Automatic annotation (TrEMBL):
GO terms for cellular component: cytoplasm. SUPFAM superfamilies: Thioredoxin-like. Residues 53-183 form the Phosducin domain. InterPro entries: Phosducin-like_chap/apop_reg, Phosducin_thioredoxin-like_dom, Thioredoxin-like_sf. Belongs to the phosducin family. The lineage of its organism: Eukaryota, Metazoa, Chordata, Craniata, Vertebrata. This is Phosducin like 2. Residues 29-63 are annotated as: Disordered. It holds the Pfam family Phosducin. It comes from the Eukaryota. GO terms for biological process: protein folding.
Amino acid sequence: MNARRGDPDMQDPNEDTEWNDILRKFGIIPPKTKPQDEEESSPTVRVLNACEDEERNKESSDEERALLKYREKRLQQWKATQARPRYGELLEVMVQDYEKEITYAEEHVWVVVHLFLLDMPLSAQIDNHLSNLARRFPRTKFVRASARTCLSSQGCATTLSSRCMSADPSLPALCLYISGNVKGTINAQELSRLSLHELELKLAELGAVQSDLQQTKRAGGMKIIHKSAFKNKKDSDSEDSL
């Protein structure tokens, strides 16, 4: 007699016997059911799994808190930047105001000082460059002060000789301050060779302005800028001659 599914006399279909293997092969009895893994269903394993889930949730929460903290920090930095004074023009500082407006200027504000010489063509060129840069970088304070007048004033001369002119005495010159400290100077010889774009790049390298020319230089594009600037100047000169 053929064995039938559901026959009460048939042996347990889950037993590991050769006969049951044959019956499973021909589909007469269903495949052997796998007993539930006792280890996975044990209370200890369930507790461990729950602990792992909790740890993963904690790590996720820590990452979210770190991200929120970073965003808050960046927001505060942006607000601080927006709160800084804006200038936007080349200012002239009298000798009596030198320390107030330059040495003790607003904290974290870069001050670019042109120590000019009256009726000197190079000083006029520098003034023109700084006026352009002041409009482009209104959060940097660009000022001009008479070198002769400052050097003849005891208080101003002391400041200049100890902080700026001792490092580079040639005039006219640029002296860069931040938070009362001199961070760099550019002497007359170097200034005479700098175009507007080159002066901007120099100030950016010293940290006084945030300029896109830094990235352009890294990408090898400064020659293109200079060629373009030269072309514009040549075109302007041509128009002036008409």
